[in-house]
Design the sequence.
């Protein structure tokens, strides 16, 4: 048991969530810190500090880091992070040197998608798409039981698919991006407009947030969950746009399940029911094809941490084939990873032997 623990560290734009995670995806210890946004060295210090804290009480074998940014396909370098100081930051090797443990780095959404696949809403599915609705839209893809990162490591940035040509301006420089219509930003925009207009609802948002600058989508979600009709309508509208985008993703990827995570998913069925309706209305070939399920994520804010830890644990296990229990897992992995060496090596060998036998007998 002690051998099967790994640390998951989810580094977001404002918070670092770190935990010790066992092989069943249970978090057995956790800490939270503010993310130092000024320098990459400060983030490294924070990683080293939480690791030091955890190794005191737990036998840790590996560390997985989920980073809010573009991570290269070799899971070692954060190429770019919009909210943090990382620019081509070789985070994996730097963190491994500081902690003395094997480290794996992946995009935070990829980690969350992996966690939902292994332990959450998408267990027993082979193909899933995770859509995280926060201020923007992020996401992850698992295809045939493997995380799909794309050739350059950037797959799953769904938020910037254009859904309205010539539509609302987006921070990315384009216009009409999906996240301008189907994310927490939409709710935030509306809430701020209400506050500025001085309506009773706007006053309520101001009181909940404490300050205009702290008004966000979560106040709308909270008010909607408490029964406010206007907020429910705004969330239904976001859900409608969500379903339209999901139909596009289904046309491209055809997964069995769409898992909706992120803060806006706290609205539950207020969001998901309209998304399902719009999906059913928009899906190509509707009525003549199997339709993917749309469901809420199960692991909440822990998903990134759990997925990062699990990826790191599995990677460390593959590096130590002598470990008890490793063989079964490695074998299983080779079935779905045609590029892995054991399969590639045995196939040509058998062919060669059969060919030479054929040569000898003829
Ligand atoms: Zn955009």
Sequence:
């Amino acid at each position: 048991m002690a051998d099967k623990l790994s640390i998951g560290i989810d580094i977001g734009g404002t918070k670092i969530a770190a935990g010790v995670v066992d092989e069943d995806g249970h978090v057995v210890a956790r800490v939270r810190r503010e993310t130092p946004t000024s320098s990459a060295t400060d983030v490294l210090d924070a990683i080293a500090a939480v690791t030091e804290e955890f190794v005191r009480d737990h036998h840790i074998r590996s560390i997985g880091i989920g980073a809010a940014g573009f991570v290269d396909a070799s899971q070692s370098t954060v190429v770019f992070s919009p909210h943090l100081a990382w620019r081509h930051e070789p985070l994996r090797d730097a963190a491994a040197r500081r902690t003395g443990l094997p480290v794996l780095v992946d995009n935070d959404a990829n980690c969350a998608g992996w966690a939902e696949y292994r332990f959450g809403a998408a267990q027993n599915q082979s193909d899933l798409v995770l859509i995280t609705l926060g201020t923007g839209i992020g996401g992850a893809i698992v295809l045939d039981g493997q995380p799909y990162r794309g050739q350059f490591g950037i797959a799953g940035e769904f938020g910037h698919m254009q859904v309205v040509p010539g539509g609302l301006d987006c921070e990315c420089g384009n216009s009409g991006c999906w996240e301008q219509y189907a994310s927490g930003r939409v709710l935030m925009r509306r809430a701020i407009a209400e506050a500025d207009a001085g309506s009773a609802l706007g006053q309520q948002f101001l009181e909940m947030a404490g300050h205009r600058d702290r008004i966000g989508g979560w106040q709308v979600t909270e008010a909607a969950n408490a029964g406010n009709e206007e907020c429910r309508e705004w969330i239904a509208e976001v859900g409608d746009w969500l379903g339209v985008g999901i139909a596009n993703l289904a046309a491209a990827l055809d997964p069995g399940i769409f898992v909706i995570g992120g803060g806006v998913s706290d609205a539950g069925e207020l969001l998901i029911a309209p998304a399902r309706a719009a999906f059913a209305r928009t899906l190509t070939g509707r009525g003549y094809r199997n339709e993917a399920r749309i469901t809420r994520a199960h692991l909440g804010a822990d998903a990134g941490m759990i997925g990062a830890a699990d990826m790191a644990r599995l990677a460390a296990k593959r590096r130590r084939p002598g470990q008890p229990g490793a063989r079964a897992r490695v074998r299983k992995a080779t079935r779905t990873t045609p590029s892995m060496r054991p399969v590639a090596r045995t196939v040509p060998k058998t062919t060669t032997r059969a060919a030479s036998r054929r040569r000898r007998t003829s």
Remarks:
- The longest strand covers residues 27-34.
- The mean pLDDT is 87.
- The chain has two domains: 2-114+302-320, 125-297.
